[in-house]
Design a protein that fits this description.
The chain is of the alpha/beta class. It contains eight helices and eleven strands. Helix 6 packs antiparallel against helix 7, helix 6 crosses helix 8 and helix 7 runs antiparallel to helix 8. 39% of the residues are buried.
């Protein structure tokens, strides 16, 4: 089992093993009281782990239907986080969903937390979205700065994390077109804590 558990569990990190999203490990590298899952657990075990933790960070590649398993989980099929996890995730108000089009998953199921829309982290994605002249250095710069800022404010209240992420990432976005694209697709959904269901977003 690809699993590390701290003596006191508090934050659950679900980050399927994948070298293309290695930059995201910066987010939780220095986090205290964490359980990190890279693979090797069943969906039923994951549901129990979600229930046992105060908050959940879900990181990697995905789609509007969930977080891709990347072949690292024995019975997961294509997704390790999908509609089957919604009931337990609804009990959390401070989750973080970082994968492409996670915002659609969050909104569709009325979840609460910080999430990303389409997030360019690879050259192929940049090319697909029309960034023909962008080099890998700009993509890496966006990836690394994003992860560094999230890590810096990870233990702050979610709204503070969101606003500081936007404030600091915006500085890079003025000179980096990939960061500009990505910052416009970061949002904070407060479905559980905000009775008026207001979506805070940069769009």
């Amino acid at each position: 089992i690809w699993l590390y558990i701290s003596p006191i569990m508090r934050t659950l990190v679900v980050h399927p093993e994948d070298h293309t999203t290695e930059f995201l490990t910066t987010i939780y590298a220095n986090l205290y009281k964490k359980t990190v899952i890279k693979g090797g657990v069943s969906k039923s075990e994951l549901r129990e782990l979600i229930e046992a933790h105060d908050r959940v960070l879900m990181l990697g590649h995905g789609s509007p239907y969930g977080l891709l398993s990347r072949g690292q989980f024995p019975d997961a099929g294509l997704y390790i986080v999908d509609v089957s996890m919604v009931p337990v995730l609804k009990e959390k108000s401070n989750s973080i969903f970082i994968w492409c089009h996670a915002d659609q998953f969050v909104q569709r199921h009325g979840l609460s937390g910080l999430c990303t829309g389409m997030f360019i982290s690879e050259a192929g994605e940049a090319d697909y979205w029309g960034f023909k002249e962008v080099n890998q250095q700009l993509i890496d710069q966006s990836n690394e700065r994003f992860a560094s800022i999230v890590s810096k404010y990870l233990n702050k209240p979610l709204q503070v994390l969101y606003h500081e992420l936007i404030r600091e990432f915006e500085l890079l976005s003025k000179m980096n077109p990939i960061a500009k694209f990505n910052i416009e697709r970061i949002c904070l959904n407060c479905w559980k804590s905000n009775k008026s269901n207001v979506k805070v977003t940069t769009l």
